[in-house]
Design goal:
274 residues, alpha/beta, Spore Coat Polysaccharide Biosynthesis Protein SpsA, Chain A, two-stranded antiparallel sheet, 13 strands, 32% helix, globular, binds uridine 5'-triphosphate
Length: 274
């Protein structure tokens, strides 16, 4: 039994980089070969021992709810055929997990999307997965590694990776002390800094474990970069108190929020399967 019972999936963004594909379909439903991004995320959470999935959706995102539901007509149609097995993965998820949903009515940033999940998550530590960051590892999944680390440290944890200096403007970037190999105690973080202002080239990617006091902190944190409520700004408050760890995870991340990363992930996965 994991100490983390719930995983929040902020999935309300517009996904404008994938227009027109995302005009009427959520970005999180884009498939890597035949499985949608959101399902990879849910499977990663399940592997980490979590079975409460909390999804923050928005307008035009109903397909996310339908995906984790029974489709009687379709299932009746393929029952007894060789296609039946193709739905086994979603069946297994539905048998083991519970799903709850809420809507972010206005896109006010990732911090705001996480705040909207408060009613679903309650007053307990929780995981966050951004499904458009697709993470793979032949051993333990990235979130499993992070849950293990949470059990030791009992504070917020962010997954980090080295990025090219020139690309820091795309990420939250950390500054901290490496307490043991790959484990940093953070004391500063900056949202989307230009390379010359970046405190390092260690970027936060879409996996977090957050302690529940983060909700109040988000509420009290004024909007930051681009007028959005940034999770990085809220985490900075915890970091100043020495309560955030940056973890250089084992594995590989594909930025499936960008077309290039999405194509790379598709090629990688297809080659693994064939
Ligand atoms: P992104 O900025 O990468 O996603 O947000 P986006 O806005 O959907 O994509 P583009 O830039 O228009 O192509 C990172 C994650 O945070 C969620 C997004 O759904 C995505 O998973 N998010 C972001 C929200 O849920 N709400 C927000 O207000 C902002």
């Amino acid at each position: 039994m994991s100490t983390i019972n719930k995983c929040l999936f902020p999935a309300a963004g517009y996904g404008t980089r994938f227009l027109p594909a995302t005009k009427a379909m959520p970005k999180e439903m884009l498939p890597i070969v035949t499985k949608p991004l959101i399902q990879y995320g849910v499977e990663e959470a399940m592997e980490a021992g979590i079975n409460g999935m909390a999804i923050v959706t928005g307008r035009g995102k109903r397909a996310l709810e339908d995906h984790f539901d029974i489709s009687y007509e379709l299932e009746h149609q393929i029952a007894g055929s060789d296609k039946e097995g193709l739905l086994e993965g979603t069946r297994r998820i539905m048998n083991r997990c519970s799903f709850s949903y809420t809507r972010q009515v206005e896109m006010k940033g990732l911090g705001h999307a996480i705040l909207m999940g408060r009613a679903l998550v309650g007053q307990e530590p929780f995981a966050v997965i951004l499904a458009d960051d697709y993470c793979v590892n032949p051993g333990e999944s990235v979130l499993t590694q992070m849950v293990g680390l949470y059990e030791q440290h009992q504070c917020s944890i962010v997954a980090i990776e080295e990025v090219p200096h020139a690309e820091t403007y795309r990420y939250g970037v950390i500054d901290g002390v490496e307490e043991s190999p790959g484990i940093f105690r953070l004391h500063d973080m900056v949202e989307k800094p230009q390379p010359e202002d970046a405190p390092s080239n260690l970027a936060i990617i879409g996996r977090y474990i957050l302690t529940p006091d983060i909700f109040e902190i988000i509420e009290q944190t004024p909007p930051g970069k681009n007028g959005e409520m940034q999770i990085t700004d809220a985490l900075l408050t915890q970091a100043k108190e020495g309560r955030v760890i940056g973890y250089k995870f084992k594995g590989r991340r594909f930025d499936c929020g960008s077309v290039e990363g999405y194509i790379d992930a598709t090629n990688y996965t297809y080659q693994l399967q064939s």
